[in-house]
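Action item from last week, closing it out:
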Amino acid sequence: MRERYPPETICVTTEPHTTTQLSLARQVHSACLVCGAGDPLGLHLKFIPGQDGSMSVIFPGESRFQGYANRLHGGVIALLFDAAMTHCLLARELAGVTAELKVRYQFPVAAGRAVIVRAWAEKKKSRLYLVQGTLHQDGEVKSTAQAKFWLGSMAVGSRPI
């Protein structure tokens, strides 16, 4: 059975990025393919903080990002999870690199239709942050992800989860 969520539980707001998140994002990856203004061919996605500490992004899911006919490419889905999770940490004044990303592709994601990706930090273990995420389309969870982010020498601050 497909898991359905009412739109209000997705925690998407129209609030702008926080000043800290924007300055940190510019400092550590301004040329990012997903969100960086420095890449003229980039997606230039805007990440939206949730009141619960999560981070969300709305991706238009344009047909040019399909793999199989009318299906959003799995690599694009992984890219969206990685970026949302990165921004979840940036909002905590943390910059890290992906140590591990596990994506569960539960149902096909239609190309040409918008998706919402939401990520939230679960806990910190030593120098790793564990982060979770969901991808929604038409009110249904289509994919989930778990990741470990290593702070290491990239750490620029620390805040408890």
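Closing note: Strands lie at 48-49, 55-59, 97-105, 115-125, 128-137, 140-150.
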